[in-house]
């Protein structure tokens, strides 16, 4: 039987795992937890051709639905707006973007499962 983490610790661990996953799959991570007054972007990466903005959702179970289901249309709009702000602030030469969801299901005491939904919104 594992230790139950509070949702913030679980979220941080999920983001760490998602970052490792992206690197393992050949992406370069440009930023993590980028914040501005309008909100926060979880992970910003690139495949060398485009920017990839990843929303990471981590849950310990599916009692409230699958992790990716938490990304509503309102949340997707907010992430797109934040991505524009990040591009302006970073002066990135890359303008083509993709918006992904990385879903981490990590039951207490269990093995985490990652699902990468590329181009999710």
Description of the molecule:
By secondary structure, the chain is α+β, with helices and mostly antiparallel strands. It has one domain (7-117): Trna Endonuclease, Chain: A, domain 1 (3-Layer(aba) Sandwich), CATH 3.40.1350.10. Helices cover 30% and strands 33% of the residues. The longest helix has 18 residues, at 7-24.
Number of discrete domains: 1
User: What is the radius of gyration computed over CA atoms, rounded to a whole number of angstroms?
Assistant: 14 Å
Structural class: alpha+beta
Strand order of the largest sheet: 1-2-3-4-5
* Biggest beta-sheet profile: 5 strands, mixed
Work out the helix count.
2
SSE topology string: HEEEHEE
Which helices and strands appear, and what pairs or packs with what?
Blueprint: H1 7-24, E1 28-36, E2 39-46, E3 51-59, H2 73-90, E4 97-105, E5 113-117
Parallel strand pairs: 3-4
Antiparallel strand pairs: 1-2, 2-3, 4-5
